[in-house]
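To: structure subgroup
Subject: Chain for Friday's discussion

All,

I'm putting the inputs and outputs inline so they're searchable in the archive.
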Amino acid sequence: MSDLFPGFIAQRVVTSGAEIHLEMGGSGPPLLLLHGYPQTHAMWHKVAPALAEDFTVVCADLRGYGDSGKPASDDTHAAYGKRAMAQDMVEVMRALDFPRFRVAGHDRGARVTHRLCLDHPACVERAALLDISPTRRMYAGTDAAFATAYYHWFFLIQPFDLPEKLIGADPLYYLRRKTGSWGSSRAFFDPRAYAEYERCFNDPATIHATCEDYRAAASIDLAHDDIDAAAGNKVACPLLILWGEKGVVQRCFDPLDDWRAVAQDVRGRALPGGHYLAEELPHDTLRELRAFLG
């Protein structure tokens, strides 16, 4: 995707659990960018080239998404737990000779980033989390407003193969409806990036893998979070929290308070948009990331 990421080079890294596709460009301290659902690393195309002026930027597809591998899963859903996804990224960065790095994650990628900070604190210098509160907090705070807005959290976790069949009947319709919600519209998506989302999501293996991601979030991920909470484990590195003031997280949660309950050093603010900050508000997002990542 040289037109979206000029000067970046595509690579594949085989980890202990998956094969990860990425685009890397720039020079300077390493910075890992992780995307959300139902997208790919292409979501960073409006900010990654500018960040590459100051950082060596690695834009990776999470396992199960984009052009990364889609490993088999089982009833534990561990293959798509955030622990496994975080392990992928540690191995990717080590393979690129970056044992310690900065990271920014959006949506599902931010949940992977949260687990990465907890499981691999020596690897993460600082982290930015875009438009989420902690998974455990969001499930615990579920009410009618949240369940209505984030119905997919409860739809995608249904047993195989109900959501797979229903989404698979018209994947592009589902994708367009989903990306046109959460306080955003589809008008700001670059057609080239959106074509990538369509290409990748229009694949039964991706649909299944992304359902497994959500099944893991409602099961094994919560178990891991419960263990950390009971032990008093908190994220130690500095966190930047950004969210959209028109989005669901703003309406239903208190992101700064939510993250201060599970992390030691938290700052951030709402930006004047919806869920897809890096594409809807690239200049605001870039300004905040540059100031924080330094």
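Points worth raising on Friday:
The CA atoms of residues 278 and 285 lie 6 Å apart.
Strands lie at 9-14, 19-26, 30-34, 56-60, 101-106, 124-130, 239-244, 266-271.

D.
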